[in-house]
């Protein structure tokens, strides 16, 4: 099976977490458990019971509302915003600069987009990470960025992919989508998008190699 940069592909849509920047989804739960004195199972159960993350990532509550929900659910009204933001952002790990450089190389060859289930607090942290690396912000790396909290939709809902295609004038059959979540991949593929699951230990550097290489890489569509 050949690489994913096949003839006919004109647009690439990137996920953010575990595609561009490595993440640890359990890290915020661990940190809030330590801060609150609860165990991780209790923290995770409270978040799921109240649908906190989905509400925040789809813009139903804003930054201040999210922080207050955290304080209320974990029973500590004294936590400063910075304490909550720091614990929340532990999901974000070190960003390999080579991935950013590869995206910049592709920018002149393809129309590039970002589609992420995320929150404003995370995006601000990513901006700071990029500044520290001497790299441009996400809004300059990509022709257009789609954040779930701004469009008030989230993957794997088909509506969010339809929104991206429609608002950026993309044809599904000319579009490559890279994501780490199999549910997101399946949903996008149902619309005719060339959807590829990025699976560790491989990274976008493996999937988005120069087409002149002939090595096989996994491909899902």
Query: What is the count of distinct domains?
Result: 2
Structural class: alpha/beta
Low-confidence stretches: 213-221
Can you tell me the CATH superfamily of the largest domain? HAD superfamily/HAD-like
How many helix segments?
A: 12
Radius of gyration from the alpha-carbon trace, in angstroms: 18 Å
CATH topology call of the largest domain? Rossmann fold
GO molecular function, one term: hydrolase activity
Pfam families: Hydrolase (PF00702)
Protein name: HAD-IA family hydrolase
Keywords: Hydrolase
Summarize the structure.
Keywords: Hydrolase. With 221 residues, the chain is α/β, with parallel strands linked by helices.
How does the SSE layout of this entry go?
Blueprint: E1 11-14, H1 27-36, H2 40-50, H3 52-57, H4 63-73, H5 81-88, H6 97-106, E2 111-116, H7 120-132, H8 138-141, E3 144-147, H9 148-151, H10 158-168, E4 175-179, H11 182-189, E5 194-197, H12 204-207
Parallel strand pairs: 1-2, 1-4, 2-3, 4-5
Helix pairs in contact: 1-2
Description:
The radius of gyration is 18 Å and the shape is globular. The protein has two domains: 11-23 and 94-207, 3-Layer(aba) Sandwich (Rossmann fold); 27-91, Orthogonal Bundle (DNA polymerase, domain 1). The longest helix has 13 residues, at 120-132. A five-stranded parallel beta sheet has the order 3-2-1-4-5. The chain has twelve helices and five strands. Strand 4 (175-179), helix 11 and strand 5 (194-197) form a beta-alpha-beta unit. Helix 1 crosses helix 2 (40-50). Helix content is 45%, strand content 10%. The chain has 221 residues and is α/β, with parallel strands linked by helices. The model is unreliable at 213-221 (pLDDT under 50).
